[in-house]
């Protein structure tokens, strides 16, 4: 299987170089290039043709959310993971709206970052639990006006939806709800179908926007 081609977009040189060194230790990941701001990333993307872009949020010239929107509009198949220290609701929602498939804090362990790259490359979505909890906490502080019945969600599907919003993996959901992973996957497929969404990021955004639990 071909290696995963990754571009790193980060304005701090020491972080940019450190990420490149650490990720290049993985035999299945190739760092094809780097950029120091969003504008440079937009310019280099057609030349480098990465499969995954690790994108910082706050950068000079052009920030990561704007760059993500521009790149996803031109190259929808490229997957973008926001890698940042910012986890406020507005920034996270802005990144997801721009099309990012992942949102991870820079404190992540290098092995977990490599695993996240592989996960997103397979077509899944990765939202770190710290970020998910921030969104979840903000959501449950709002007035309750649950709409799960509008979408025909069962009680169990609503429980699974809540776990997704908390950033739990399928394995964690399986353990928490005492279900097999296969059953969890079936519930998630039903949730995707009923909410007319296609990945965890859009599920989370819809759950937050419409207070679905």
Give a concise summary:
The chain has 213 residues and is an alpha/beta fold. The protein has ten helices and six strands.
Overview of this protein structure:
- The structure is a single chain.
- This protein is of the alpha/beta class.
- It folds into 2 domains: 4-127, Rossmann fold; 134-210, Arc Repressor Mutant, subunit A (Orthogonal Bundle), CATH 1.10.10.
- Helices cover 53% and strands 14% of the residues.
- It has a 6-stranded parallel β-sheet, sandwiched between helices.
- Helix 2 runs parallel beside helix 3 (64-74).
- 37% of the residues are buried.
- The model is unreliable at 140-145 (pLDDT under 50).
Keywords:
213 residues; alpha/beta; Rossmann fold; Arc Repressor Mutant, subunit A; 2 domains; six-stranded parallel β-sheet; 10 helices; 6 strands; 53% helix; 14% strand; globular
Spatial order of the strands forming the largest sheet = 2-1-3-4-5-6
Shape: globular
Structural class: alpha/beta
Cα distance, first to last residue?
A: 41 Å
- Mean model confidence by pLDDT: 87
Structure annotation, total helices: 10
Helix content: 40-55%
Count every beta strand, where a strand is a DSSP E run of 2 or more residues. Answer: 6
CATH-assigned fold name of the largest domain: Rossmann fold
CATH superfamily of the largest domain: Response regulator
Model regions low in confidence, pLDDT < 50 over at least 5 residues: 140-145
Q: What proportion strand? A: 5-15%
The value of Rg in angstroms is 17 Å
Main beta sheet: 6 strands, parallel
Q: How do the helices and strands follow one another from N- to C-terminus?
A: EHEHEHEHEHEHHHHH
The name of the CATH architecture of the largest domain is: 3-Layer(aba) Sandwich
């Amino acid at each position: 299987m071909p290696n995963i081609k990754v571009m790193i977009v980060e304005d701090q040189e020491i972080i940019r170089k450190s990420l490149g060194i650490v990720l290049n230790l993985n035999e299945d990941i190739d760092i094809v290039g780097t950029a120091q701001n969003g504008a440079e990333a937009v310019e280099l993307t057609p030349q480098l043709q990465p499969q995954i872009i690790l994108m910082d949020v706050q950068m000079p010239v052009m920030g990561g959310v704007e760059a993500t929107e521009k790149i996803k509009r031109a190259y929808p198949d490229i997957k973008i993971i926001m890698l940042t220290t910012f986890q406020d609701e507005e920034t996270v929602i802005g990144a997801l709206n721009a099309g990012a498939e992942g949102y991870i804090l820079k404190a992540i362990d290098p092995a977990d970052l490599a695993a996240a790259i592989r996960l997103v490359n397979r077509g899944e979505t990765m939202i770190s639990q710290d970020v998910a909890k921030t969104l979840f906490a903000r959501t449950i502080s709002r007035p309750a006006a649950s709409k799960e019945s509008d979408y025909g969600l069962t009680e169990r599907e609503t429980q699974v939806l809540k776990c997704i919003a908390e950033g739990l993996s399928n394995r964690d959901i399986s353990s928490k709800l005492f279900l097999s992973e296969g059953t969890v996957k079936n519930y998630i497929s039903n949730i995707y179908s009923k909410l007319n969404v296609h990945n965890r990021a859009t599920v989370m955004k819809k759950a937050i926007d419409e207070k679905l639990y």
